[in-house]
Each structure stands twice: as structure tokens, then as C-alpha cells.
Amino acid sequence: MDTWIWIIIVIIALAGGVALGFYLARQYMMKYLKENPPINEQMIRVMMAQMGRKPSEKQVRQMMAQMNKFSDK
């Protein structure tokens, strides 16, 4: 009977560890994305406007394509 109790304890501990790990990883990612949001087209437009340029839609799309290409590597 002792062996079954230990097996159940190990299974419960593993399930608890997985649940806790998932929760902590989710909290970390939510905090990271809040502090460092992914760049979007609106951010590119604002950045170019701050540099004194009036970006065309083509320029914004090219810049987004370059950023996506760079992040895929």
C-alpha cells in the first residue's frame, strides 16, 4: 500500500509543477509583452514622422517586411 501512496504523491507533484510552471511562464510573457510591445505599422509611421519624414504606405510595408524578415532569422 505504501508504494501506491508514493506513486500518487509523485503524480500530484508533477501535475502541480506543470500547472505552476505554465502559470509562471504565462505571467512572465504577459509582463514582457506589456513592457516591450511588438512593433506595428502605426509605430513605424510615428517613428518616421519623428525623423521628419512623411512615409508612404509602400515605405511602411517595406519596413514591416524587413522587420519580419529580420525577426524570422
UniProtKB/TrEMBL annotation:
Keywords associated with the record: Cell membrane, Membrane, Transmembrane, Transmembrane helix
GO cellular component term of the entry, any: plasma membrane
Bilayer-spanning residue ranges: 6-25
Membrane topology: Single-pass membrane protein
Pfam families listed in its UniProt record: UPF0154
Subcellular compartments: Cell membrane; Membrane
Coiled-coil segments: none
HAMAP family: UPF0154 (MF_00363)
Family, as annotated: Belongs to the UPF0154 family.
Protein name as it appears in the record: UPF0154 protein EBB45_19480
The species this protein was found in: Lysinibacillus composti
